[in-house]
Design goal:
heterodimer, A: 4-stranded antiparallel β-sheet, B: mainly alpha, 34 helices
């Protein structure tokens, strides 16, 4: 991959600044994401991972810096605008309505219409198609979401995100509430998405998961970029060391680190 | 891994399901049973027709209410909206009042209905007032307007109605042999059922009720969805009131009293969940038919044979046992509480399916997996305004107290009284007369402060006051009990009500407002039952000592004070005032300085955190609700001693006064805050407002019903101040915005 010329990045964030009152949450952070890439975003608590992602989706407004999506400069004022550009975020608490069924949740807020009524036939058929594309095992699109286990609810949330045909999916701590089995299934789902060319950013405390599926890992510390590494060139030990003792001054990009590495 | 998703089979039904079928069967069985027991009343087609006709008006409102409840909201104002529209129609239309045409009258009524719905919706969504408190206040305000507009009299316009046959035909029987109201109901129900079950409006309603946060993420305009439901509910009540106007050709101030109970019970019986996200219009309509039928059965009574002895001969005479007026509320309140328990305890636990499997000897259906949907967010509120206290000094420190507003208001109001009536306001006798009025409210407020600080609410305090008073009066007068027995029985009745409240809220995990709303009707109904057909007055004066002045009590025991300061004080101070202050000091110390008081505030501030910290939150909430009932009971026992009789309107509107007192006095409607000084100051504010409004200033006094409207407005304003100034610190944010406006603009450029 390093030999071939890199394709145009799908997302590029440059010099992002963000302050909450007196607290400087982000200082000049850069982020690059290529199509079909899985980027792990790691760092200690309050490192600014979630803030950076919320700025990308438009949930927060940046104080400075610029964002390009597929080369176009953008200024999202709300998550709905970023969704139109193909960026989808899956929230930690899944954001599903437990009282509604799987199909209704996948099309939450944009149920297809036939005349004045909701087109149920189309809705359930589409929902079924999306679930099959993800290869997840939800028994029936008619099942109420509250009767599903945590892992299956996560699958429904991902299916919902996929149904927008996004180019970028952001997962915020997706494995935090999942059992080992469910985590395994989720990682398979992520690889399936990668095969379909969807770029993904995964915020996680669990390096194991990022090393299992990721292509690259990027470390934030106290609101600053302190380096990134290709997964194939690094190990958990090195990443942990960057998380704990990395600084902006000594930060190396993945390519720099790869070049220095004794082959 | 292979795809395990099956191809979508048959979609589940949306308009009606097993619950509706069961309701229909139950309804038919109940009606047949009624026809067997009381053939003269239920046996005719006439009776069935009357049942359907009366169901129509309740059912139309239930259709609107289904939208509100599916949104996880509540609309308690429908009954008074119904009454108000009927009365406004009469005022506008009747030839001896405004004498408008029928078209402009109907249009004005629809506009008023829409306005009420809009006010409800805006209060609940944009201004974030809890639904039950906003709509309860609207209920009381609406009732005040009804009384003000009718002066307690019925208005009839049957003469003029003949000139407009087209409109009044709505209330008549049509050529097909059934009443037109039934046709209107059928249309409303059909449209409502289709909209809720099959259109985006309905889907948006369920999403909002199921998980509002998720609905917002999905781009659903949830505030508009909720406002829309309130509009639908109010307009449904308006249509229903117009049908009543067409049928009765007149209106009385009693129209729609406690209809909110009937309607909410109907919707809940129809399968909707008070916790939101569930409900079907067809079910609500069947629920309405069931509730109206039960109501009719109760009001109609059942036939009995009585043996009468005439001239030494025993003759069997058929008679009828009927419940006294007001007692029907007991059963409707009970029905509401039971209905609310159905959804969480029967439907969610699949009791019917498991029972059916057990009958057939099969394995029970798999228990529902309960997943990790984050249904409730944890948040701690009101921190900003409290932090401000730490950085202030002197007067600023006083102003930052949550109860500063109440203390200043009480002082201002008292001074206003002096300014208005300098001749008499500051007299010792007037001061103590106000103090006497203050006593009852303050006593209730003491208990309610604990409940609200613990994050619950008790809407039944006024009704429990009446229940305890009527029980004691019944024992004194009818059973001739001695004072101590009467007090004990009053306490038993009041504490039983508190026990029911606490068990339903803590044990069965019902929302406090719905459990205590049920008790509100049950306790009032029981009080009306006790007082039915008799004057509860004239009993041993020993009991009445509870409500007398200190001097009178001393005289009763043969003590005569020497003339002087001590005696003049004893002549104006009441025993009850002393008792109230004793209770207040005790409760104040416990709330402010003991671990229990801190536990109450912790429970109200963040229930989950308090539970994690090892606080037995169930015990705290249970005791708080019991304390509120105890205080209301004491107020009731004192009330009948003071008046030497029991009046059925005792304690009416007291829940409104008491909640307003607590909120003005620094309590938060979301729980976690409350001081006894604040609560007493809040009660003083309400008492002084009432006293001032009743004051005769140059020959003008304000009628009682306007005062209730006024108090309702004060409650809403107090809650808004609590939410926006104390919790959201809107003033501080505004100041920061004005100060920091230039800076942020510079940075962004």
């Amino acid at each position: 991959m390093t030999d071939a010329p890199l394709p145009r990045p799908i997302v590029e964030m440059r010099g992002i600044d963000k302050a909450f009152g007196a607290v400087q949450a982000l200082r000049g952070v850069d982020l690059v994401l290529y199509p079909g890439e899985i980027l792990g975003l790691v760092g200690d608590n309050s490192a600014g991972k979630s803030t950076l992602m919320k700025i990308l989706t438009g949930a927060y407004q940046r104080d400075g810096g610029e964002i390009l999506v597929a080369g176009e400069p953008v200024q999202f004022k709300s998550p709905h605008e970023s969704r139109d550009s193909g960026i989808e975020m899956i929230y930690q608490d899944f954001a599903l309505c437990g009282n509604m069924d799987v199909g209704q949740n996948i099309f939450l807020g944009r149920w297809p219409l036939k005349g004045p009524f909701v087109d149920r036939g189309k809705m359930y058929a589409e929902a079924d198609r999306v679930l099959k594309r993800l290869k997840v095992d939800v028994n029936s699109v008619y099942q109420k979401v509250e009767s599903l286990s945590g892992g299956r609810q996560q699958s429904v949330a991902i299916a919902r995100a996929i149904s927008f045909e996004p180019r970028v999916v952001i997962l915020d701590e997706p494995t935090a509430n999942l059992s080992a089995m469910a985590t395994e299934r989720l990682l398979e789902t992520m690889l399936e998405l990668k095969r379909q060319g969807v770029a993904q950013i995964i915020i996680s405390h669990r390096l194991v998961d990022i090393f299992a599926v990721g292509d690259r890992v990027m470390v934030l510390k106290r609101g600053e970029y302190v380096g990134d590494r290709y997964i194939r060139n690094t190990d958990e030990h090195e990443v942990l060391e960057i998380i704990v003792s990395g600084t902006r001054e000594r930060a190396l990009t993945a390519d720099e680190a790869g070049a220095r590495r004794p082959q | 891994m292979t795809p395990m998703t099956t191809s979508p089979g048959r979609a589940p039904p949306q308009l009606a399901g097993g619950w509706e079928a069961g309701l229909l069967i139950f309804l038919v069985l109940l009606y047949v049973a009624g026809a067997v027991v009381n053939p003269t009343f239920f046996g005719s087609t006439e009776a069935l027709h009357a049942l359907l006709r009366d169901t129509s008006r309740v059912g139309i409102i239930a259709v609107g209410m289904t939208f509100v409840i599916a949104n996880k909201d509540l609309d308690l104002s429908v009954g008074s909206t119904y009454g108000l529209i009927a009365v406004v129609f009469a005022r506008l239309f009747a030839s001896n009042v405004l004498d408008l045409g029928v078209v402009s009258t109907v249009l004005l009524c629809l506009a008023l209905g829409a306005a009420i719905g809009l006010v409800n919706g805006v209060l609940v969504t944009l201004l974030k007032v809890p639904a039950f408190i906003a709509t309860l206040t609207m209920l009381f305000i609406g009732r005040g307007f009804v009384l003000a507009l009718t002066h307690g009299q019925a208005i009839y316009y049957s003469g003029k109605a003949r000139d407009y046959p087209l409109f009044f035909y709505l209330g008549e029987t049509n050529a097909f042999g059934f009443n037109n109201q039934i046709a209107v109901f059928a249309i409303v129900a059909l449209v409502g059922a289709l909209v809720l079950a099959k259109t985006r409006w309905g889907y948006e309603t369920f999403a909002t009720g199921g998980n509002e946060q998720a609905a917002v993420y999905a781009g659903i305009p949830t505030n508009w969805v909720r406002v829309r439901a309130y509009l639908i509910s109010s307009l449904a009540a308006t249509v229903s009131a117009l049908l009543a106007a067409a049928q009765d050709k007149g209106a009385t101030p009693l129209y729609g009293v406690s209809w909110e109970l009937t309607v909410i019970a109907s919707v809940i019986i129809g399968g909707a969940s008070i916790l939101g996200g569930r409900g079907r219009v067809i079910g609500s309509c069947l629920g309405a038919a069931l509730v109206v039928l039960i109501d009719k059965v109760l009001r109609q009574g059942w036939p009995i044979t009585r043996t009468v002895v005439i001239d030494g001969e025993s003759i069997e005479v058929s008679a009828r046992y009927t419940l006294p007026a007001g007692a029907v509320l007991v059963f409707l309140g009970l029905l509401l509480v039971i209905a609310v328990l159905i959804e969480p305890y029967l439907i969610r636990r699949q009791v019917a399916a498991r029972f059916w499997a057990w009958i057939r000897g099969r394995a029970p259906p798999p228990a529902l997996e309960v997943g990790g949907v984050a249904l409730e967010g944890v948040q701690t509120k009101g921190a900003m305004a409290s932090d401000a206290i730490l950085s202030t000094k002197g007067l600023g420190r006083f102003l930052a107290r949550r109860d500063a507003l109440a203390i200043m208001l009480a002082a201002t109001l008292w001074l206003t009284g002096v300014a208005l009536r300098p001749d008499y306001w500051w007299n010792l006798s007037n001061t103590f007369a106000i103090l006497l009025n203050f006593t009852e409210l303050a006593l209730i407020t003491i208990g309610l402060t604990y409940v609200i600080a613990a994050g619950d609410i008790d809407l039944s305090v006024g009704a429990v006051l009446a229940l305890a008073g009527s029980t004691a009066a019944y024992f004194l007068k009818v059973l001739g009990a001695d004072p101590m027995t009467a007090i004990a029985m009053g306490l038993v009745a009041g504490m039983a009500a508190g026990l029911v409240n606490a068990t339903l809220t803590v044990g069965f995990k019902l929302p406090a407002f719905i459990a205590t709303l049920g008790m509100f009707y049950m306790a009032r109904g029981l009080a009306a039952w006790f007082v039915a057909g008799q004057q509860l007055t004239g009993w041993s004066e020993t009991y009445n000592l509870l409500g007398r002045k200190v001097n009178d009590v001393l005289l009763h025991f043969g003590l005569v004070l020497p003339p002087g300061l001590l005696r003049s004080v004893a002549e104006v101070v009441s025993i009850q005032t002393l008792w109230m202050f004793f209770v207040a000091v005790l409760a104040g110390i416990v709330l402010a300085y003991t671990p229990f008081g801190l536990k109450v505030c912790a429970t109200g501030g963040n229930l989950r955190a308090a539970a994690y910290a090892g606080i037995n939150t169930n015990r705290v909430r249970f005791l708080s609700l019991m304390l509120a009932a105890l205080c209301a009971t004491m107020a009731g026992l004192i009330n009948i001693a003071y008046f030497r009789s029991f009046n059925p309107v005792a304690g009416q509107f007291r829940e409104l006064d008491a909640i307003a007192s607590v909120i003005i006095g620094g309590g938060s409607i979301f729980g976690g805050h409350g001081t006894m000084i604040g609560a007493l100051a809040g009660a003083a504010v309400i008492t002084l407002v009432r006293a001032l409004l009743q004051l005769n200033v140059q020959g003008f006094t304000m009628p009682q019903h306007w005062i209730n409207v006024f108090i309702g407005a004060i409650l809403i304003i107090a809650v808004l101040i609590d939410i926006w100034v104390r919790q959201a610190n809107i003033l501080g944010r505004l100041r920061a915005h004005l100060a920091g406006g230039g800076k942020t603009r510079r940075r962004s450029s």
